Amino acid sequence: MAVRVIQSKAPSLEYHRFKFTPSLSQRSLKSAAPKIRRTSLKLTCKSNGNDPGEDYYLIDAPVEAGDGFSFSGGKYSDGPSPSDEWFKQGKLVKAYFVPGTGEKAKDPIFGLTMGASSQASDDIFRWFCVESGNANNPTVILIHGFPSQAYSFRKVLPVLSKNYNVIAFDWLGFGFSDKPQPGYGFDYTLDEYVLSLDAIINEISTNKVSIVVQGYFSPVVVKYASSHQEKLNDLVLLNPPLTAKHANLPSTLSIFSNFLLGEIFSQDPIRASDKALTSCGPYKMKEDDAMVYRRPYLTSGSSGFALNAISRAMKKQLKPYVEDMRKILLDENWKVPTTVCWGQRDRWLSYNEVEDFCRSSNHKLIELPTAGHHVQEDCGDELGGIISKVLTRSRIIY
User: Fold this and answer.
1) d(CA 104, CA 259)
2) Pairing relation of β-strands 209-214 and 165-169?
3) In this structure, which of 23, 43, 225, 284 has its CB flanked by the most CB atoms within 10 Å?
């Protein structure tokens, strides 16, 4: 892979070329349908299948994860679950307080009372975080895009953790983090995400950090960073929406914001996870990986309603947020060393004008010809090495 680098914050603008050969593994997308075990045509959702005479639906979730709208829990299979193995690697961290409304949250379609995981918080939201590396080393925070999970950085984590203390978290509404029902204390607006990001970063690190963020959450991170430059060592943006044309969500994502249709499609784990991850680049999912991404949508309606709310917020606020991000990154008062890594097989965001923007802003640009929108999925090992070199070189220069 040919990688072109534009040196950031240098007295003069220079181009550097070097060869980079990825070792991408071949991935295959297997059957997406979850296994159903039943003894008659009648389908009854149970929390367990201890009684062999009972019908029950097997899904990959603990009993307490379900809610009234979706399922009441159970297991996807009797064997070890990939999502359970991933969950064991992390921990739940409390950050960002939102006082509850006192009302019981209900789903917007049938008016059914949602489960505990969907209720407005009367304490502090729980964020799922995975940490790897030596706590004495500089901290790097990995922030996934929309829609995705911290799991997308599973191959980046071990590479970066050799020299850094690395933390990846699930945004509120995604993965194992809390997913309050919109309208009952947290509405998933981009402004709320900026405030919540401030809370979680303060909770997981008291020192300066470097941030790596992917995709449509990049404007949120840049907005946060503009007021907290003293907190950041470096910023790495993976396929961020940098141009005016990038401010429009692709149809794959914007469909979740549609009236009624969005609520329905966001409850479909195949459309919400598999299609969203594989339609934007060359990424091909293994079944074990697919089950981790599908898990939130299989276990609770709250994940789908959060996705619906985020899509609507993105549709309204993404354009002004992208404009603000451009102004911030072009401003002479922006002092954070910034690198843009761009997967050129991105089917959602066009590469046109990206190079011009990086040249005019004097930010470093690294092109990844064989990667798509979710760069960390397409070449996670290689990306980890690139980020490590960028951060190391930045510490030497700055």
Assistant:
1) 23
2) unpaired
3) 225
Nearest to 203 by CA among 149, 146, 126: 126
Whole-number pLDDT of residue 33: 41
pLDDT, mean of each 10-residue run, the chain (398 residues): 46 35 39 40 34 39 45 51 91 89 73 68 86 95 97 97 97 94 88 97 96 98 97 97 95 93 91 93 92 90 93 96 97 95 96 94 95 96 96 67
Structure confidence at residue 82 (pLDDT): 87
**Cβ atoms of residues 80 and 87 within 8 Å:** no
**CB distance 234 to 394 below 8 Å:** yes
> Is it true that the peptide bond before 158 is cis, omega within 30 degrees of 0?
no
| Identity of residue 123 | D
How confident is the model at residue 105, as a pLDDT?
Answer: 76
Q: What CA–CA distance (Å, rounded) separates 318 from 315?
A: 6
> What is the spatial distance between Cα 279 and Cα 284, in angstroms, rounded to a whole number?
9
Q: Is the CB of residue 120 less than 8 Å from the CB of residue 186?
A: yes
- Amino acid found at 340: V
* Distance separating alpha carbons of residues 12 and 260, to the nearest angstrom: 53
Task: Return the biggest CA–CA distance within the chain.
Answer: 75
